[in-house]
Amino acid sequence: MQLLIQTVIDGLLVGGLYVAISIGFSLAFGILDVVDFAVGEWVVLGGFAGVAAQTWLGIDPIIFLPAVFVIFALIGSLVAPLIYRVRTSRYARPALMALAFTFGIAMLARGTMLTTVGFDPRTVQTSLVSGTLTIGGVHMPWLRLAGFLFAIVTTALFMGFLFFTRTGLAVRAAAQNKRNASLMGIDVKRLSTIVYAIYAGLTAMAGVLIGAIYTFTAQVGPQYSLLAFFVVVMAGLGSIGGVLVAGLFLGMLQALVTVYIGADYTLAIVFGVLFIVLLVSPQGVLRRGLAA
Fold first, then answer.
1. Which CA distances in Å does 53 have to 32, 56, 113?
2. Contacts of 180 (CB under 8 A, 6+ apart)
3. What is the DSSP string of 128-168?
4. How far is the C-alpha of 58 from the C-alpha of 188, rounded, in Å?
5. Torsion sign over Cα 255, 256, 260, 264
6. Is residue 255's pLDDT more than 80?
C-alpha cells in the first residue's frame, strides 16, 4: 500500500510538470489554430538558459526564472507574427504550411543547440530548492514539489487571465470565432502575439524546473513535444481545465505503469489510453474546448 501511495504521489508531481509544459501550448493552439511542434524545444532552451545563468552569471536558476520568462516572451513575440502570417496566408493549405513552419522552427532550434553545446547531457544546478519533504512515510523531493506548485499557480493565473480580464475575454472570443472577433474590433494578430509570448515564456520557465530534475540534452525536445501533444489532445484542444486533469493523469499513468508493469511498456500503454479516450470522448476529458 505504501508503494502505491508513493507511486501515485510521484506521478502527480511529475504530472504537474506536464501541465506546466502543456498549458501555454494549449492556449497558443486555441488562438493560432496550429499545433506548435517547437514546444519541446522551448523546454530544452529554457533548461539551457538555467544552465547558462548558473555557469556564466553565477545566479541560481530558480532566482533567474523571471528573467527567463521575459527573455523567452520577447523571443516568442518575434516568432508569433511569423506563424500568424503563414497561418492566415492565401497559400494552399495554410494550416499545413503553419505546421511545417513550426516544425522548421523546432529543427532550427535543435540544430543550433547541437552546434552550440553538442550532445553532452546537462543538469540545471540549484542550491535554493533541495532536499526531500517526508510526510507519513511518503517522500516528496522539494524540486518536484516546486514544479507541481508552479503548474497549479500557472493554471490559476491562466484561468484568471481568461475569465476575469478584458484581454482574456478577447482571447476566448478569438478562439471561438476569429472572423467574428475581428468584426467586433478585436486585433487577433496582436492577441496571438501576446498569447504566444506568454506561452514561450512559461514553457521555458518549466524547462528550467525540468532541467533541475532530469538530465537533458539538445535532442530531447521531441520527447516533451510528444508528452505535451498527449496532454493537450486528451484535455480537448484548447481546454485549460482539461490540461490540468490530463497532465496529472498522464503523470500518474506513467508512474503506475513504470512501477507495476515495466518502463518498456509505458509509451505503448500511454498512447493506447489516449486512443481509447479519443474514441470515447473526441472533445477531451472535460468535453469542452477553450471557448466553451
1. 31, 6, 16
2. 173
3. SS-SEEEETTEEEEHHHHHHHHHHHHHHHHHHHHHHHSHHH
4. 40
5. negative
6. yes
